[in-house]
Amino acid sequence: MKTATLSRRGLLLGMAASLTLPLIARPGRVQAQAQQALDDAEALIAQAGLAAEVGFVAQDALTGEVLAIRNGDMPLPPASTLKLITALYALDRLGPVHRFTTRVWRDGDTLVLAGGGDPELDSKGLAELARLTVAAEQAAGRGAPLRFQVWGGALPHIPRISAVQAEHLPYNPTISGMILNFNRVHLGWRRTDKGHSLSLEARGAGQSPRAYTIGIGVADRSQPCSPGDDSGAREQWTIARGAMGKSGSRWLPVRRPELYAGDVFQTLCRAQGLVLPTPEVTGAPPQGQVIASLESRALSDILQGMLEYSNNLTAEVVGLSASGQPELRASARDMQNWLQAKGITGNYSFADHSGLSADSRVTARLLADTVTRLGAQQPLRAMLKHIALRDGKGREIDSPIRVDAKTGTLNFVSNLAGFAQDGGGRLLSFAILTVDEPRRSASLGQELPDGVLVWTRRSKALQQALIEDWTARFGARIAQLPDLPLPAGGQDLGFSDATRPVIRPATMNSGVFR
């Protein structure tokens, strides 16, 4: 199939071809095709049985031509599809080679661990920083410092990403400029003759030091995990006795990230022969001499990981770093203003950068326009996760369709936005938003409410069925007239139904995204 670019020869051939078309009849054919496409979509939506609002827009990814639309301007919760916008915003503001640096300073008799907002710093990286620190101290011939401080002021301290999400959920941690293991700690337990043995570890790649500044106890109640009294020197958590069983594990969010990182750094330095005092949190920017530093990966690599694994903390950190604002809502408004300045307008509002907030709203048109227009300016498609098509039992199927997209999932919210390419090379950009608003509102902050897994599975199957419809329908259409110049956004070439493949609602059952 010919590449869909508009050369001078292609333009002239297309203009000549267009003269042979019955121009008076085109509007009717356009309307007929649009209506048929919508009718097919309505059948798929009815078969899904979601009792949900569904909005979608599919476009030609090269020209912005709107190919299919339903409730395209209806504001709906974005969930993690908002991370698409955050990634483009951060790339534009900070640049793809931007790196975050964690430093160790020596100021007289004080050692300072200074976080630089590296969202991917883990225990292995902190161990390398400890090694560099000990080597620098030994080379300088200095004795052990009398004070050890930790500074996280490179970013604002935000207690939780979302106040309405449950406190024990690991994807809702505290934000700070000092970040370790995505500001989460690994809780493990096993039953012994004397009850349960519990452990808290700063688990990272090849390093899992004990987390001494976090305490864990057992309680008799229904909530799986809850924070305890945090007025003391340690962060406290309890786990419900009935939720433990014989053995198990889970991640918990960290609420005192500076002390957590300082505690682990102290342990790692001790293993290298440098004994540090108990860590203290400081609000004063570090001074003195930098004796060791560790850089993050390039921002483009960080964002690719963020989009693949949908990490909320990373999204908030890169968004706050890009805006320089003191709190999340102000930072989200800055991103919203940036998007409007790029010419992407509509009825949308952002309350954070991750999509975890219950207050953010986007439209399918906004997401599709962003993917098409701004994604072309940045290597967005290469950063997105490849999503395989699957059959009704969840098994991957051999399909000529390639989907590279970002999912967005909350309770009774299931979205997908990105690119789909058929076997002939026709590239679509799209956004599909589905939400059951009453059930979403009723289950805010709950962990796996009743019915959510089945609902989400059916929503993902609907997404796949729509994409299969669009790629078959519009891929065949463009193949019929390869030299016709592609129109600007909002127009339609207008073909008769004879050139459109038949899409049956039964394709609803053909697959499920994961």
List key phrases describing it.
single chain, 514 residues, alpha+beta, six-stranded antiparallel beta sheet, five-stranded mixed beta sheet, 12 helices, disordered N terminus
Describe the structure.
With 514 residues, the protein is an alpha+beta fold. 33% of the residues lie in helices and 21% in strands. The longest helix is centred in the C-terminal third of the chain and has 29 residues, at 452-480. It has a 6-stranded antiparallel beta sheet with strand order 2-1-17-16-15-14, sandwiched between helices.
Please mark out the parts with pLDDT under 50 across 5 or more consecutive residues, or reply none: 1-26, 478-514
**How large a portion of the residues is in β-strands, by DSSP E?**
15-25%
Helix content: 25-40%
What is the H/E string?
HHEEHEEHEEEEEEEHEEHHHHHEEEEHH
Mean of pLDDT: 85
Distance from N terminus to C terminus (CA atoms, Å) equals 30 Å
Shape: globular
Oligomer: single chain
The strands making up the biggest β-sheet line up spatially as 2-1-17-16-15-14
- Strand elements, count: 17
Secondary structural class: alpha+beta
User: What is the rounded Rg?
Assistant: 26 Å
Largest sheet, in brief, is: 6 strands, antiparallel
Q: Helix tally? A: 12
